[in-house]
Structure formats: C-alpha cells, structure tokens
Amino acid sequence: MTSADSLSSFMPVLLGLVGQNATLRGGVVEQNRDRWQTVFWTGDAWDEAESLASQAVADEEWVQSGNFAALGVDALVQPDATASAGEPESDLLPGVGSEAIVLSINDQPADQATLKMLASVLGRYLSLQRSHQNDTRRLWQTTQMLQHAAAWQQLDDDASLLNSMANCACEVLNCERATIFLWDKRTKKLIGRPAIGIESGVLEVEDNAGIVGEALQSKSPRWWSAGGTDEGRVNRRIDRAQNFTTRSLLAVPMVNSRDQVIGVFEAINADPGDHRNESFDAADVRTLSELAMHAALAIESYRTRVDLTETRDRLVEQAAQSKPLIGSHHSMEEIRRNATKVAPTDLSVLVLGSNGTGKEVLAQHIHYQSERRNGPFVAVNCAALVETLLESELFGHEKGAFTDASDTRVGKFELASGGTLFLDEVGDMSAGGQAKLLRVLEEKVVVRVGGSQPIPVDVRVIAATNQPLQQLIEAKKFREDLFFRLNVVSLTLPSLSQRGDDVMELANHFLEDFCRQIGRTMPTFSEDARRAMLSHDWPGNVRELRNTIERVCYLTSGDVIRSEDLMMTPSVNRPSADTGWAEDADGNLNHATRAFQIQHIERLIASCGGNMTEAAGKLGLHRSNLYRKMRQLGMPTSN
Ligand SMILES: Nc1ncnc2c1ncn2[C@@H]1O[C@H](COP(=O)(O)OP(=O)(O)OP(=O)(O)O)[C@@H](O)[C@H]1O
C-alpha cells in the first residue's frame, strides 16, 4: 500500500510540474485487494475517480470521462501474478501497478503526454519508496533471524530448538504456522515438528509426498496458494487431522554444511500485509531459504553437541568405573555413605589414612559422584615438590618468570577449573606453600608466578595426608587456619588389616583386572593362600596387596594360587636390629633384597632424626623418589 502521508508531501511537488497557474483537480487512486480508494486528492472531490482509475489500470492506457483523464502508474510487476506452481518469479518486468493518476487541468481532462510524464515520475517515486520499505523489512528480518540463530546454539533439547525455529519463521514471514521436516533417509520419511493439533506432536509423511516432498526431491523451493488448478498438490488429510485450512504454503530444502539435504522448512498461510496478498512472494522465498540455512547449521551443530555430550558422558562413566572404590567392610560402607553425602556439596574434604589405603581412589569417588564429574580431576603430590616448584606447579608461571621459565605455564588450579583438585600429602607442604595455598582457597583467584593478573578459579579441593596434622599444628609445622580450611569434612580410611574380608574382595578385583590385561584365565586362591592374605598385616595397605597380586599374575601360571606363590614377606619377619638380618629369612633372593632395603632405609632415616630430605640425599635419591621406593617396599611413610 502507498503511504498517504508520503504522497501528501510528494504530490504537490509533482503536480507543480504541470504549471503554477493551472487549476488542478485530481489525485492518486489505489487498488487495495478488491477495493479502489483515493489515497491523495487536491481540489473538489469527484465521485467517479475510483471507477475511472480501475478502468485505466485494467486497460493499461489513457482513459477519460467528463473533465477527467486517468492513467495507470508505471511499476515493475510479476510476469504471472497467479504463479501457483513451483517457485514464484523473482524477476519483475515493467508494467502497470495498482495505482492510477486521475487529473483534470483547468476543467479539461489532462492530456496524454502530461499524464504519462506524471505517471512515470510517480512510478519511480513509488518504486523507490517500496524498495526502501523492503530494505527496512529485510534488515529487520535478518536481525531477527540472527538473534534467533544465536539463541539456538544455547538450546539443549530438540523440541525447544524446533519450536524456536518455527516461531522465528512465523515472525519474520508473518505467517500462521511453520514446521521443520527432518529427513529420515532410512525409512524414507519426513518427520515434521512442531505439529500443532496432532496428538503425538509429530507429523510423519512420505519423503516424496506433497509440496514438502517436492521441495526435498528437487532440492529447490516450492510454493502453492489456494484457488489454482493444482489443489491436489496439498494433502487435505493432514489439514483435517489438524482441523486447519491451508491457504498458502512455501517449502524450502534445508541443506547442511556438507551440501546434504537434511529436511524441509515449511511455512503455511501468509498473512496479507502491506507488501503482499495472501500468497508467499519471491521475497518470502529468499527469507525462508536464508532461515532454513541457519536452521540446518543449528541442527547440525546441535547433533554434534549431542554426540559430543554422549561421548563425554561415556568417557566419564568409563573413568569413574576404571577406579572403583572396592570394599564392603562396615568401615568402608560408612565412608561410602559419607562420601555420597558430601559429594554434591562443594565443601573441602580432608582424607586421612596411611600410605596406600586408597585416599586418591576415595577422592576420585567423591569427584565422580559430584556435579563436577564432567570437569577435570587433577592430582598434585605436594611432598614431591620443593617450595619454589610447588608454587609454579599449583599456580602456573608467566614466560620469563624465572631462569627455566621459557614458556607460560598454566598451573594445576587453573587446569582443575570446573573440577576437583586433589592435594596429596598436604602435610608435607612447606610453610611458604601453606601460606600461598591458604590465600588462594580464601580468595578463589590465582596469580601466576611472575604475573600480576588475578585469574578466578572454580575448584573444589580435596586434600589428603598420612601425617597426624593435629600434632604438626602443635609443633607449629602446619598452619591451623589452613587445617580448618581443608578439614571442613574429614574422612579417615582404615588400614587394610582392619578391613577383614575386604582383603579377599580387593585381591579378587585386582586378580581379575590383571588377568584381563594379559589375557590370562583367572585362577582361584587356595585356602592356605587365603589364610596367608587374611593374616598378613599389609603395612603397605591396598597398594601392597595390588603389587602382590600383580606379581602373582605375571609370575605364576597355574589354575590355583598357593600361599608360596604370593611371595609375601611376613610382616613379623622384619629385619632384626641385632643381627641386621631377617630372623626368618627364607633364602629367597627377592625376599632377602627387600628385607635389606627396608632395614637400610629405616636406619638411615633414624640416623637423620627423621629428616626425609637428608635421608634421601644420603641415599642418592630425590625426596619424592624415596617416598615412592618406601611405598614399593610396603614401608609405612607416616611419622
Ligand atoms: N578401595 C579401593 N578399591 C580399589 N582399589 C584401591 C582401593 N584402595 C586403594 N586402591 C588401589 O591401591 C593403590 C593405592 O591407592 P591410592 O593411591 O589411592 O592410595 P593413597 O592412600 O592415596 O596412597 P598414598 O598415601 O601413597 O598417596 C591404587 O592402585 C589404587 O587403585
């Protein structure tokens, strides 16, 4: 429709071309659907203006009646305005529009030449104005589509995604309904959603049926409007099922980034508006094709997200199952119950227990039961690092922060962001390290060594130690404030010898695991092997048991594991201080070597007054390697 406002300022200027002194009566008459109406008039009114205008447009030539003459305004028009089959034409041809100028000059009908000149200028003005309106509309449509498309990236269920796409189509095309048909190539069906009025909410059609099928098979837009000769192209059965009447329909194929057709986007019942009648037009085809492109990409990226999430969940599940917390002794059941309670909270947990009791396994068990299970689980052994390295390990460092810092390095706190940081052997941390750790736990930001930028970290901390922290606090070796920070909840793992039959449960678990790894049929434990394991005091706890079973698995081959296969050094057979030799040495070289190593390490530690760093130095080992060696030998490493 022509804007009457804009004509009221333009027409006086246009009519001024006729001559300043002429007496003018007349104006512009426009067809609006079935009715003709005057949208601008100057001078006394004339009753027959509308009928003369309609005659001029119909005849496409200059017509006159009484003192008036009329001529249709030039315009670009659709070559076949009723194009009901296939695609609407997008190339417009010169012709007559739906407006006419009706004019009388000095009480005479306006002559042909004058009217032709006026109609031509007015035609150009109106087409410029319409193209401006179209540009404004396209700009608005594009903005709407982009806003919707950005929101689609956040949606995580397909029903919301398809609903949002359909709503967007209704909004930008100004139509009644829209449906997205996704192609199931295997079953040769098009699955349409949303499907208003269909009980299941899903519309299922053959992939070659109707206009939607045509668009899919031809890979090009198809459109239809009622009143033509091709009524059969529309499936009225679906209309009846939905208690609905389709008056116009536009279907465009949806093509993904690999140029594969994944479905069809359908829009139904164009609302008549200022730019079109009740049929979709060429501009709508362009708009829906653009929307279908955004929709296809969003569906593709949604499917990738779903696949990735499923893969991640599977991997997390596998990781959670790869280190199960085995044991059904009541003390372990109690720990499991408490772990389940504390897991969903973000509270700090302190895990206590001797070496090898499973502190890290318990920390992982808590992590995988928590909301953070999809985030990382990062473990740091605080005893293995000297103070300067610990700081850079935990908080990271900037390039050039110190001599060896040739690159920027992200610290474990940052790596664990969104997940859990397991601080093992926290009791061995230096005073400086403790102060820095406390600050990070309180402020929840880290600053890399050599940096100045505070980096927020979202980390749950689970700390562990085999040290009696209360005693360390009294001896001023551990900060009390840090202890309170870490010890919001504490869980204490009993030593393996206190867990009764769990020894056998764990032994069978490890046996099965190692046999599977080396492809060996799982043997059974003889009664005497069972008795030997249950009576052993396992100073190295579960780790020692695991090592024992690993050894058995590799070094034996029978169906039954006997007690001598276990090659366990009975704990009572520790080397005697008097003889410097195992009292009950059985002559086996492995046992004798182990007994000697235990005795040597114990003596050295004693001669250094318990100073592990000094003892490690004398042994020619790094402090962390000494701990590792002691654990291998099944020696207790707590004070
Ligand atoms: N309850 C358990 N179920 C299954 N495996 C366990 C269990 N407890 C310990 N283990 C196994 O024993 C070994 C030692 O466990 P873990 O490292 O968790 O002990 P830790 O107490 O953290 O040792 P450390 O004090 O030396 O750091 C690992 O191989 C672990 O898989």
What does this structure look like?
This protein is of the alpha+beta class. The protein has five domains: 4-135, 2-Layer Sandwich (Beta-Lactamase); 153-304, GAF domain (Beta-Lactamase, 2-Layer Sandwich); 323-492, P-loop containing nucleotide triphosphate hydrolases (Rossmann fold, 3-Layer(aba) Sandwich); 496-568, Helicase, Ruva Protein, domain 3; 572-639, Homeodomain-like (Arc Repressor Mutant, subunit A, Orthogonal Bundle), CATH 1.10.10. It is built from 20 helices and 23 strands. Strands 1, 2, 3, 4, 5 and 6 form a six-stranded antiparallel β-sheet that branches. A six-stranded antiparallel β-sheet has the order 9-8-7-12-11-10, with helices on both faces. A five-stranded parallel β-sheet has the order 14-17-20-13-21. Strand 3 (63-65) and strand 4 form a beta hairpin. Helix 3 packs antiparallel against helix 4 and helix 19 (612-619) crosses helix 20. The relative contact order is 0.06. The model is unreliable at 80-86 and 572-585 (pLDDT under 50). The structure holds adenosine-5'-triphosphate (ATP). The site of adenosine-5'-triphosphate has 19 residues, from helix 9 and helix 17. InterPro entries: AAA+_ATPase, AAA_lid_NorR, GAF, GAF-like_dom_sf, Homeodomain-like_sf, HTH_Fis, P-loop_NTPase, Sigma_54_int. It comes from Rhodopirellula halodulae.
